[in-house]
Design brief:
The complex is a heterodimer.
Chain A (H helix, E strand, L loop, with lengths): L3 E3 L3 E4 L5 E3 L1 E3 L5 E8 L3 E10 L2 E4 L6 E7 L2 E6 L8 E8 L9 E2 L3 E5 L1
Parallel strand pairs in A: 2-12
Antiparallel strand pairs in A: 1-4, 3-9, 5-6, 5-10, 6-7, 8-9, 10-11, 10-12
Chain B lengths: L2 E3 L4 E5 L4 E3 L2 E3 L5 E8 L6 E7 L7 E2 L2 E6 L4 E6 L8 E9 L7 E2 L3 E6 L1
Parallel strand pairs in B: 2-12
Antiparallel strand pairs in B: 1-4, 3-9, 5-6, 5-10, 7-8, 8-9, 10-11, 10-12
The chains are: A mainly beta, B mainly beta.
Amino acid sequence: DVKVTQSSRYLVKRTGEKVFLECVQDMDHENMFWYRQDPGLGLRLIYFSYDVKMKEKGDIPEGYSVSREKKERFSLILESASTNQTSMYLCASRTGQSSNSPLHFGNGTRLTVT
Amino acid sequence: AQKITQTQPGMFVQEKEAVTLDCTYDTSDQSYGLFWYKQPSSGEMIFLIYQGSYDEQNATEGRYSLNFQKARKSANLVISASQLGDSAMYFCAMRTSTGRRALTFGSGTRLQVQP
């Protein structure tokens, strides 16, 4: 089974702090994704990566950056956390071998910015 | 642009009954895939079922089936014989062949199964 692990289940940070959310997958997947989930809005794509050091912006990249130095690890960075970034963050991965393949998700990180 | 619409924010169903969760989509691509995910209160996203745009038969996985109506651009999830453990958020999602590798998600439907 694919395992996607997010380093923290809950995080509380202060406004202006730099925040790192870490995600690791163990299935050698090429593609990795960061979504945020808010009530009534579903999941919105922040960034994704299709290879080491490669990234593309999603629908809501403002205020975020990402890093993918190794294939198994994809980090989401909040450069200067703000209260409107309080949300559930979900990491996912997918193989690039098949267009039918589903996303495999981590358990999420619930971030609160005070 | 791709868009997924789930018009039912919440649904109730009696245990052992069937329920249909609605999903409509918008894309100009001819080749695309539709996915349904379940998210229990614990938060993990569980992949349920997939339907390709060229699949001639509706997808089925155990108690889940996908009522795919291509001309109407709908991909409704049908859960038969509902169980208490089916209470969760359900998300419809789409990926197109010419679009990016990510999935576009709908806003979700919260299903509550009543005993």
